[in-house]
Design brief:
about 210 residues; Arc Repressor Mutant, subunit A; Tetracycline Repressor, domain 2; 2 domains; elongated
């Protein structure tokens, strides 16, 4: 996901440590700041709500300049939706790069399992879950952002099934996929989430089974 640390520095062929490139260090520093901002933001969203939380408060808790928050995320809505954007971007890339013989459904199942097994710090994971579960405004923002993902999925399902782009069936299947992804993300980690993942996958398979082919 977006906040996973970048790879380490690259050593030149001479093996001289003095020639370790600084790019990896810079990227790790950016990743650490980005993670600190996300952790601070979702902690505040969970504690006091999305609407009342300011960028200045997020910056203070993350111990960074407010300018740094804006540099990494642009705005409070973009920050709040950064994890959703990461999921959507990964799924979109998989759809664009889908090899011959790989079904859209297979990529969707991988995405559901990935969201259910997201490698987040336990504290951040719980803050994210609490923030979205408790705040209708935040949930509405998330659904609005997910619309683009739903449209892309519908187009992919339609093309694979040989259906017109305006056929309602691929759109219904895509909407089911989006709902499963978002609902699975809101289930607390543990056996309950693992069960939700499998139930969500079964629902998605059943929905996709209504399409031709």
């Amino acid at each position: 996901m977006e906040c996973i640390y970048a790879s380490g520095g690259k050593i030149t062929p001479t093996g001289n440590l003095g020639h370790v490139e600084s790019g990896g260090l810079r990227e790790r520093g950016k990743a650490r700041r980005r993670l600190a901002v996300q952790t601070a933001a979702f902690g505040l969203f969970a504690e006091q709500g999305y609407r009342t939380t300011t960028m200045a408060q997020i910056a203070r808790r993350a111990d960074v300049a407010e300018r740094t928050v804006a540099l990494h995320f642009g705005s409070k809505p973009e920050l709040a939706l950064s994890l959703v954007a990461a999921w959507s971007a990964r799924l979109g890339a998989r759809l664009r790069e889908r090899p011959d013989g790989v079904r859209v459904l297979d990529l969707v199942v991988d995405s559901v399992r990935e969201v259910g097994g997201e490698e987040l710090d336990d504290g951040l994971r719980e803050s994210v879950r609490r923030a979205f579960v408790a705040d209708p405004e935040l949930r509405a923002l998330r659904w609005a952002r997910a619309d683009a993902q739903t449209a892309g999925l519908a187009a992919a399902f339609a093309a694979e099934a040989g259906l017109p782009a305006d056929d309602v069936r691929p759109r219904l299947v895509a909407a089911a996929v989006t709902a499963v992804l978002l609902e699975v993300a809101d289930v607390p980690p543990g056996p309950g989430q693992a069960t939700a993942v499998e139930q969500g996958i079964a629902l998605v398979r059943a929905a996709a089974g209504t399409l031709p082919g």
